[in-house]
Amino acid sequence: MTDTDITVDFVKITSEVLDLQTIVDIVKDNGAGAISTFSGTTRDTYRDKKVIKLDYEAYIPMAEKVLLSIISEARSKWELKKIAVYHRLGTVPVGENSVIIAVSSVHRKESLQSVEWLINQLKEKAPIWKKEIYSDGSVWKENRENRVCC
User: Is 130 annotated as a binding-site member?
Assistant: First the structure.
């Protein structure tokens, strides 16, 4: 079996700083012509409120299981080489990454489509919770992007 025959999945939920290049290097594959990424960073405002930081909590064993399941489903939809889904826990200051997804594939279409799908599924299904800390208070946030109703 050669490097181009191997499909590998990497999931990490950590309090460590997430480095985009390190995660891109993890998904490099000699048989891949494309690597696509998504990095979610803490922005400094939300609806005219000054954001100081984000705090993330997770039920780690379940979150890892859900992320692996999402990755498995992505593999059933697209022909992908290597996939890395990393999510930060604890405090994430403004400007730092809270989530990075990197996917390698033979062609760009598969990796581009799968990265968007993976982040949407993560936000919808993973038991990871975010608290936004503002200059004048804080609030636990739910992902409203994928809500069907209400």
Answer: yes
